[in-house]
Structure prediction request, 157 residues.
Amino acid sequence: MRAAESETEVLDLLAVHERAVGRLYMIYSEMFLEHQGFWLGLAAEEMMHAATIEELARSIEPGALDLRRFNPNAVSTSLEYVATRVREAQTRDLDIVTALSVALDLERAIIERKWFEAFRAQSVEVRTALGGIAADTRRHAQMVTAMWEATRRRRNG
Prediction:
């Protein structure tokens, strides 16, 4: 995949990533029926993020984002990781702790790389939308962490 060069290309890449993560969470919802609501909730929010990003990509003006602090190659690498995890989920029996660990890795990587904070958006609308997605991602990491810890306590308890 060639590097994303414009605001629209970067936003499109991020939307693809959010959809891929949402699909992975959908698969997890089918694997772990006792936690289906948890996974479906995360998946729905990932799909909403993708839709928000796609809407921004359609309406963004050139120069609305400062892309110097953003690394599209990191998104491409993460997409490959998600694809591998999807194949793994489709071909192996996973336990819930493994699925939660994968989800936590994904959410933390987005936070650490500041994908939705790396932009220097000019418009309030863009800043608000990206800031909301960043806040949701932090909340997702907290939710997954709490579920992971509760699951580990039940197993070890």
Observations:
- The first helix runs from residue 7 to 31.
- The chain has five helices and no strands.
- Helices lie at 7-31, 36-59, 72-91, 96-113, 124-156.
- The domain at 7-156 is CATH 1.20.1260.10 (Ferritin).
